[in-house]
Amino acid sequence: MTSVPLGRLVSDAFEAACLAELDALKPGNVHRHAPGHDMTTMDFERSAAAAAPSMGDPRLSVGERILAAVEATREAVGCNTNLGIVLLCAPLAQAALCRSPGQNFLDALAEALTSLDVADASLAFRAICLAAPGGLGSSPRHDVRDEPNVTLLEAMREAAFRDRIARQYVTGFADVFELGVTRLESLRTGGWPESWAVTGTYLAFLASFSDSHILRKFGRVSAEAVRQEARELDRRVQAVEAPSSLLADLLAFDRALKAKDLNPGTSADLTVTSHFAAALAGHGP
Length: 285
Hints:
- The protein has helices at 6-23, 41-55, 62-77, 83-98, 105-114, 118-131, 152-159, 164-170, 174-189, 194-208, 212-218, 220-239, 247-259, 265-280.
- The protein is mainly alpha-helical and 285 residues long.
């Protein structure tokens, strides 16, 4: 029997994570249960398929992986659907592809992060400018519109206090593994259907942190109000035996957020990344 190449496994795990997130009811975000934000799940399906080959290409550096995935996405759908996902998943893919035999995955990830250089920063900055995410402001240091003179890790360190995606780079993806992967594995072990396990993981992020995407676009008061409402729903979801019993309440929260154009995009990005990280680290469903 011919074994599947590692690059293909990584690409498939990335696409599977993106599709699993679309199947989950994620209040305020794009999913199959309800429309919103003038985007469809088909846009995200096409984006996942377009970006997946770059994620599994063993010839690419982290920066090259990020830019190639964003360019492919732009070609496929013409807008930004997955910049945060790509920024988060590229180092994880690198760790999986460059991991030594028998090496712990987190050790491989640490090596991938510390190996980032100025070229990675330059390519990532180009990708961010190409994607043009909503709420992108300017920075007095290491602005993405300028040519960087620091490594990608150093640039992320500068932004980590205000952006949860950047924070993952400087903490070894602590939120992803300690909160996201842990919650996902716990719900799977508890017998939850996969889509509900992903919903539970999303709520864990939404309840724990002010969502960076909402912070950038609407400010701290709005972001904190969303987090507080999510905390109560997260508590209730964890307490029930059948999460589907809260379907109506989750859909009501979804409608309320979308009516105000509040999209917790960073929480969704971290959810996809947790699914991808669990698969790469050997903790798939």
